[in-house]
Amino acid sequence: MEYGKRLAYYSPVRRRKFLGLAAAAASLPASARLTVPIYRIFDARLPKESAAKTRFQATIWPEAVANLRSGGVDLQITEGAGELKYTAAKRPILEGARRGAINLFVTDHVPMYWDHGREWAGVTTILDGCHVCLVALREAHGNQAPFVSTNTCVHELLHALLQDVYLPVPRWRQSAARELRVDWYATRLWLFHEGTAIRQSAADYLRRLPRA
To answer: Which ranges in the chain belong to alpha helices (H)?
Structure first.
């Protein structure tokens, strides 16, 4: 999940620093890079064509891939079919999710079972043994404000790669701290192409990821 307001963030000094760090990221040796398996699923209930889906595919997702790549994290992307369904008790079921990868499940909203009607842009969890980053097209967005409102896909993937997904369900104060921590790392990817700590944590995460 995430929250925030739009803020102005660029200055000539920061821009020069950004360009210098971008050049440094481009020279990152192949041995230092990390590849993360992503299984991307569009909810079968979504319309084939919509403005939100077009925006996601044209801007939000490519930006996420580029941000992570700039920090040395490459996404190995495969796609499949799936659908969001519910049990009689309204518990979500993600048909089509698989083990051995992070399931990036794209639907129109976060189920109330998780967000309790608060209209989150996404949620990251383990469901029936599958690791899932669910992204809601209604609320999803690209980078907006440093340290406050970052790319929804990057934000949710970092909850997995930084291993928040293994932690107990937090109280509200713990939850807020985790959100701020994730946006801090996401901002360093976005503006400074810095992903060293993310790669270190992600390597441990991948070793714990259940096999397919």
So the answer is: 12-26, 51-55, 61-70, 112-115, 152-161, 172-192, 196-208
Q: Which residues contact 209 (CB under 8 A, 6 or more apart)?
A: 99, 100, 101, 102, 131
Spatial neighbors of 71 by CB under 8 A, at least 6 apart, are 25, 188, 189, 193, 194, 195, 196, 198, 199
**Quick one: DSSP state of residue 109?**
S
3-state secondary structure of 131: strand
pLDDT at position 174 is 65
pLDDT in tens, 10-54: 333 344 444 444 555 556 788 889 999 999 999 999 998 999 999
Which residue(s) pair with 74 in the sheet? Answer: 35
Q: Which domains does the chain have, with CATH numbers?
A: 32-208 (3.40.390)
CA atoms within 13 A on the CB side of 38: 27
In the prediction, which pLDDT does 30 show?
82
3-state secondary structure 154-190: HHHHHHHHCCHHHCCCCCHHHHHHHHHHHHHHHHHHH
pTM for the complete prediction?
A: 0.86
- The mean pLDDT of 168-187, rounded to a whole number, is 83
Task: Tell me the mean pLDDT in the region 168-188.
Answer: 83
